[in-house]
Amino acid sequence: MSQMQVVYVPHTPPETFSKSIFLAGPSPRDPSHYDWRPDALALLEALGYDGVVFVPLPKEKGDWRHGFDAQVDWEKKYLDMCDVIVFWVPRDMTSLPALTTNIEYGMYLESGKVVLGYPESAPSMRYMAMHADMQFIPRFHDLRETLACAVERIGAGASRTGGERDVPLHMWKSKQFQAWITAQKAAGNRLDGARVLFTFYVGPKKQFLFSYALRVNVYIASEDRNKTNEIILSRPDVSAIVAFHRVSENILDTEIVIVREFRSTASLGDCFIREVPGGSSWKPSEDPFTTGAHELSEETGFSVAPSRLKYLGARQVAGTFSTHCAHVLMCEFDAEEISLMRKQEGVAHGVETDSERTYVEIYTVRELLEKQLTDWANLGMILTALLSE
């Protein structure tokens, strides 16, 4: 069984590790002041934790030869890198005021990596506790319970080497990141570094990582160079359903079911987005057929069995901007079904609690090509479906 590896400032972690915890909180600046971290390390060892622990103090008490700037840089680097940040705040306004801790807590509050703990007697903790509850951050009044929560959240971890270590565990294990890194490795490329720019969580308790942005340093094997100036934006793949009704042998006469919805990103026309029905699920195990059938029903009020959908494949939708793919499915409607769909025009659908409000509109392919109604990606999906027959 591997042992816990403690990394003190200004040292660096092993080239490969599977899990990491940063022990954040007030640090003694006088040898006579209380240092809670030795107790934390003993508890982590007793809990069977066998990963890396970042300790923002020198191993030898009072050895601050590396200097203030190097200390700040070290803390920022490994707060970014670690999988879980344990904030233990035994605040004492005389010896452990935790002023820097307040700032660091705010910096990582929405990172999805924080566990908060503090003695019930600690002063001036109400504000931190309130924000923890707003972000569904677990909080405790016992050091062992705080650390046990961190260990449980990490679980078995995941092995990462070199620049891969810059990707925290919750992001590394996400379906969308694994799709991206697997493709890069298959091409012979290597992730030499990354910096998380933002994360966006959804779900009842913000437990599902929906979207994130990473600034990445990628070694491109075929060109023997590194590219460092790009951001990758990621979200779950979408299922898009091309629902259509053939009117004649002329493809331009084919009627297409379109969903109109206000989207803040719209920058043309009436600022409503018109696209084929579709969307994603925050349930990682859901397949494109189930998601597609659910989205069609949710956005149009018309239900079909997942087995009726025909799968056409997956491609990136905006490959220079986002890593996600659209899984395109098609479903041909008969005259009665398209008539029922027409009756949904003007009726609001969607999920109001998610601020989603959708309306059915039906256009011919000719109208979609002649008018600036939908984007290039949707035109490509529609024509792919119709030309596949």
Structural key phrases:
six-stranded parallel β-sheet, Nudix hydrolase domain-containing protein, Rossmann fold, 389 residues, single chain, Nuc_deoxyri_tr2, NUDIX_hydrolase-like_dom_sf, alpha/beta, Nucleoside Triphosphate Pyrophosphohydrolase
- CATH architecture group name of the largest domain: 3-Layer(aba) Sandwich
Distance between the termini: 57 Å
Largest sheet: 7 strands, mixed
Q: Would you tell me the structural class of the helices and strands? A: alpha/beta
The rough form would be described as elongated
User: What is the percentage of strand-forming residues?
Assistant: 25-35%
Helix content: 25-40%
H/E order of the elements?
Answer: EEEHEHEHEHEHEHHEEEEEEEHEEHEHH
Q: How many structural domains can be distinguished in the coordinates?
A: 3
Protein name: Nudix hydrolase domain-containing protein
Pfam families: Nuc_deoxyri_tr2 (PF15891)
